[in-house]
Structure formats: structure tokens, C-alpha cells
Amino acid sequence: MAGAGETAAYADGLDAAFVETVRATGxxxxxxxxxxxxxxxxxxxxxxxxxxxLAAPWRTVPMTAPAPxxxxxxxxRMVWVGSRQEMARLYPRTAMALPYPLALAAAPVAGVRRWGxxxxxxxxxxxxxxxxxxRGHIRASCGRLARVLEDALHSGPPPAPADGPRVVSAxxxxxxxxxxxxxxxxVERLPGGSxxxxxxxxxxxxxxxxxxLLGREADQLLGTRPWHSLRWLDDPSxxxxxxxxxxxxxxxxxxxxxxxxxxxxxxxxxxxxGISVRIIPSGEPPPPSPAPHRPQDxxxxxxxxxxxxxxxxxxxxxxxxxxxxxxxxxxxxxxPAFGAQGLVLSSAEAGRLRITGHRGYSPETIERLDGLxxxxxxxxxxxxxxxGAPAFFADPEELRRGYPExxxxxxxxxxxxxPLIVSGRPVGCCILSYDRPHDFPAEERAVLTSxxxxxxxALDRARLYDAKHDLAHSLxxxxxxxxxxxxxxxxxxxxxxxxxxxMDIGGDFYDxxxxxxxxxxxxxxxxxxxxxxxxxxxxxxxxxxHAHSAVGATPDQVLSGTNRLLIDxxxxxxxxxxxxxxxxAGRRVSxxxxxxxxPIVRRPGHxxxxxxxxxxxxxxxxxxxxxxxxxxxxxxxxxLALYTDxxxxxxxxxxxxxxxxxxxxxxxxxxxxxxxxxxxxVDKAGTHWQRTDDVALLVxxxxxxxx
Length: 707
Known about the structure:
The chain has 21 helices and 29 strands.
């Protein structure tokens, strides 16, 4: 394990390389994302040019998310977004969290392993394209970052998510609270200004005239944010102007009314060190819809940052599929966004609260809480479900007054109990907990209550999906072979990978059928569709292939018989299929194809290439279809790879080129372990992270000797 000094040295080295990259590219904002140890998430490790608060909505990014940084790592390529319009078109969810005019690049950081991604942002004033030289420079910078990370492995484990990103400066100045330094920065930005804000939005300098216009003394404002210390600026639209200035690096102006009727113009001039603000009395008529003055006891409105955060999380909840996806999104995005340390998500089932997911609790605590009746008085969970109203407890004493035993269960110090209700029906309860006492201001309660409704909808939808998925998955697993038969002289390995989107099932199948007398049949096929109907038809196809194989039919006869069955069934789903008869004793292979991609053969000393198999039509179309027969020699050392199109079909790529590339990877792969060889082929084909189609792969290696 690395000591504190080694960890600090690693962070300093990484931060220096990161800052140099941001400075050299001219980016206004930079962010370095690293993969979590399980490879399922990207977490924000280092940030510059923006405060951590603004980065909260994208502090963690699932690897499957439709986001530029995740796509850069998944596809191992640089992602360029040249405008706000392009962002909205390509990445609508990211555009909700970054609704500003800017350009963005995300590039993978990889060396001997995948580390994560570098994200850079520029003001929209830069050209909407990136030159080859700029791309090369960013790729080289990512290589340097990867080397720093790899050097750190010698002194400790890979970096893991911390409480928040390290925020570093890309400028050459020194931060200072000395008014002389602040005033110098201010003069650099404006020909005679009024006040200055740092990137966190806090006042760092106020002139006498600014204090007079704002109606407060400097000592009452320095170190505060305008929307906190000046109630008449406490409006999300004004905070959004500040956010726009920070992220776009472009001047912003707005007009606000200082009660009772004094209108002021605010001009914000940002750069990498902060924001210079010029405040002047407005010489124009008041806006047609001025923000009304709120009395001192009015409810504080939701901050603009919270609104963007809520929108971002809502978009994420619309994309989750199963219950585990809901749990992961809450744990990785909602819990840290609200500063919580614990989570318990329960589903209402048969009159009880069944815990479906949790974080930050011991197994003993979860065992004690699991299965409580819906009318329990042990914790507030039952009460909030009955009433539909959330409950917030800022400290243990507040909870103890109503529920004496509850605070002793987990040792937590503050709780938010959020009922999950859909159309008046209780779905479950979401509990966020804190390790220290935590006040819940009105704006936070409002956001959490709104979020609970979205979580309830997502959880209810996910439970229905999981029920359908479990049924369909059980059907498919029952139809695929549990194990492949052992054949003397033949090594065999197979893999089935469902599509990563949809029902996670499909019609791809494979099989190995002993024929006796030193012969065996290998079959692979793909039924159209990715649902229970495709899986069911796949089972019928396998049964038909087995039946025709058992009576000694040749490969073309097996396909002809199966074709007639599918036409009789009138299933309206077409099937591709490749049937291979391997005669180990006679050292011959006979093949017939029904519209299926050609197998790839690898011979010792001759590389690998696709087999030229004239394909017949897909099964289930033409009752009189003919399936040409092809024979090739089958000698010791001979390797045959059968696969479905999900392994080689990529949008925008020629399938023949993809098949040739697969043959190249097979020729290069180590064949000592066929399961690892399959892992290599899948990884090289780029189907490791996301698959729009399911994949089946069957590899056979002739070791010598008859079966």
C-alpha cells in the first residue's frame, strides 16, 4: 500500500501533467475521468477551470451511459462535439447538464491498460472543427497521463473514487486573498470595475461604489455568493448567468431590480481566474416581467444548480432498465449529489418492505431491516408509505422522539425517508442517510421529494422489466446447451453474449451434436429478433436440426428439412444457419449455409481466412430452397470458428472487412486456452462494452485422433 507521501507525490505528478495538457490545448475547462476498479463507472478525479459544485451532475458516469467520456473509453477513440446544437443532437442527456455554448473533446487515456478519459471544453468562439495536429497533441497528452498513472502502480493500488475531485488551477497566477492582488486581477479584466467573483461564485473584491449600489457593506459580502447574501438576487435565472459565464468563458449581462424600484445592469467578464462584474444603474426601461420582490420569510427558491442536477438525474432515470440499474444510479449519482453516505432502497411486496439494494450499511443492519411489515412503527418507512409524505430527520434526537429504537440500528446521524408512490400505489421506500447531522433546507426537501416520484416510476418500470427478463432468460437458458459433449481429438469452446440493450436475450444459438463413427456436427444460427418469440423459435430450430442429424442427413439435407418446418410453422421470423459435419476419421469437413456469415478456418503455418461457402437463402422463406454443399480437408491443427453477425456487424463498416479483420485476430490469437481465445476475439471486435445484437461464437480445434 502507498503511504501518504507517495500518494501525494502521485497526485502532484498527475495534476502537473493534467494542467500542462489543459494549458497547452487552450481549453477553458479540463476534467480527468478514471475507471473504477470494477470497470463499470468513470469517476471525476481532477478538474480545472470550474468549481466542483458545477461538475456534480457528471461526477460519476456509467460506462454504458450515452456520454462523450464513456463513449471515448468504450470505443477507444476521440469524441469531438463542436457546438451546443451538435451536443443536443448527439448527446441530449449531456446537453441538459451543459446547456451552454461550448465545444468539447473527450479522448481515451490508455497505455498498458485502459485508465479513463480526458475531457476538454472550449468557448464556442473557437472553430467548430479540430485539426489533425490538435488531435495528435491531445492523443500524445493522454499517453503522458497514462504513463504517470502506470508509474504510480509501482507504489500502490490504482486510484479509487474519493469524496470529490481535486480542483486545480491551470493559470500561472497565485491565489491570494490580498486585496492588492485581487484588485490587480480586476484591473487586468476591466477598465474600471465594480466587484470580482472567484470561480466558486464568491465575492473577492468590492469597490465602494459596488457596496453603495448593492446596499451592503463589504464585510457583509466578501466570501459570500450574491444569491446567498442578497435576497433580491436569490433567483435561479441570475445564478444561471454566472454558470454560463464560468462554463462558456463569454461575457454575460443581465438586469435585476434592487427593491423597491432601483434597476441595475450587471456585466460579467470571465476568465480562468474568476469573473469581473461591472454594476451600473440601468438607463433603460425596466424589463416587462421583473422578478417580484419576495418578503424575508418567503421560501428560498431551488438553486439553478439543483434544477440542472434534477434534470440530469431525471434523464438518467429514464434510461435505466432493470432494478439493479436503478440501484446503481441512485448509489453512484443521487447519493453523492446530496452529500449522503448511506442508501436503503426497499420494494413493497406482499405487505412487507423487501430491501432490493443498499450502500453504506453492514449486512447485520440490512438483515434486521429487511422484511419489515408495511405498517411497521419500528422506523418511519411505514408511516411515509401510508401518508405518501416524506420525512426528514436532521439528527438522531429528532428521530428518537418518534421512533426510539430506530437511531440505534445503524449509527447514522441524519435521514431522509422518501416514499415511492405510483398512481396512489406504494412501490417502496428510498432512505438516504448521513454519517453526521444534516439540515434539510426547503429547497433540498423539494428536490428530493420530486426525485422520489421519478425513482418510484423508474423502480416500478424496472421491476416489470426484470420479471419479463427473468422469464425470457430462463426460457433461453433452457434451450441453449448446458454443456458441450466431449469428442476425442477435438477441443471445443463456445460463448453466448446477449445484447446490452433490450431484453438481454435473442435468437442466436450454437450446438455440438455427436454423430458416431468419429464424426460430429457443429451448428450455429441466428433467429431474427431479440425477444421471447425469437428465443422460442430458436428452440424449435435446434430441435429440428437435432432430429435431422440423428437420421444421418447431410448438411444440405438438414437445412432443407429445417427450412420446411419453419415454413409450416409460419413464424414470420427468418433464421440464418450454418451446419458443419466434421469427420475426424475421414479428415473431411462438409458445410452448408442458409444465409449465414462464413466460418473462419485457421491452419498451422497458413494463417486464417474465411471459408468460401456459397450461401443458400435464409430459413423460412422459400420451401424449395437449395443449400449448396462445400467440402474442405480437416487435418490435425485445423481450427474452425463459427460465429453470428453480432460479432462482425458494425454500423458504417463493410461486413467483409470486419470478417477479414476477425480472421486476422484469430490468426494472431494464442490457442493454448480456447476460452481465453474467445475473450480475445470478442474484445478485438469491440463488442465488450455495448452490443446492439447478441453474439454466439463456437471454436473447434482438431488435436488429432478420431472421435
